[in-house]
Design goal:
By secondary structure, the protein is of the alpha+beta class. It has 7 helices and 14 strands. It has a single domain, classed as Double-stranded beta-helix (4-Layer Sandwich), CATH 3.60.130.10. Bound molecules: fe (ii) ion. The site of fe (ii) ion has 3 residues, from loops.
Amino acid sequence: MPTGAAPVRQLDSHAVEELTETAHKILADVGSSAAGPELLRRVATSAGRLGETIQQACRPVDTDDGLYVLRGLSVDDGGIGPTPGSWATAGDRAAAWDVTLLLLATVMGHPIAWEGQQEGRFVHNIVPAPGHEAEQTGASSAVLLSPHTEDAFHPGRAHLLLLGCMRNHDAVATTAASIRKVRLSAGDADLLARPVLPILPDDAYAEAQSFTGQEPPKVPVLWQTENGPTLRYDPAYTPLDEAPADYRAAYDRLTAELKRVSVAVALEPGDVLVVDNDLVVHGRVPFTARYDGTDRWLKRASVRVPGRRSRPLAEADEHGYGQSALVALI
Ligand SMILES: [Fe+2]
């Protein structure tokens, strides 16, 4: 299925020019998209001055799809250079896009980063990496990246994810399934709202995986808010065989429903997919990486939205496996 499956918010040429020029100016002034506090300060000041069209386009997700595609920005395929062989070698490639994503993220809320992931950078490069083909992380390729809540193991996880597409010659689809489209019995919803199992840190967090300080907290998978259910789901890192049979059966029915409502979005260069991480689980279909500089390349930013009440209050007591989110609070 093409991006027709996702609502599109089109940026007009004026908004595109405003964003692009602002990003280039900031980058020229600070020198690198890894410039840290100085970059974030400049982004925060500039984001507040962006025009009404951009502010409107960045309004919260407002349909049960739980996501939208911002369209209109472009990528100079020759200018951005080859797809890096791993996030670690991406450096400043397509750095103006890092700044663009940070500007959009700052209009939506507070960008976050993780000390333990991609060296604390606020924008991650998602590229296939040799040797990681079969992992359940963004560096994989040959396997289905199962639908998951981003950073589900952590109470400080993002409310919103931004996936900016730099290159996707093979139209490799991102998958997305919204809890607001799922049909579950009241009994299943009740079972899944109980804190029965933990969600363990994923393979992108080597340090958190060796955390032994305290017991992993048991967390609910579903949470009812006044606007409908929200979701915290990552089966690849949930020890399901430790749960009673009735819970496992309810979890399996949720998984089947998420599969039924899943949409596949093949992003095009310049598209920014915005996913509400409380409503939607995302994944990626398998593909064959070439490692010749032309592979799929996304950039990802994560956002916390101040004042949101979409999660159980008990999350505040979780230890987060020793990881802490770095929040760009200016
Ligand atoms: Fe993810």
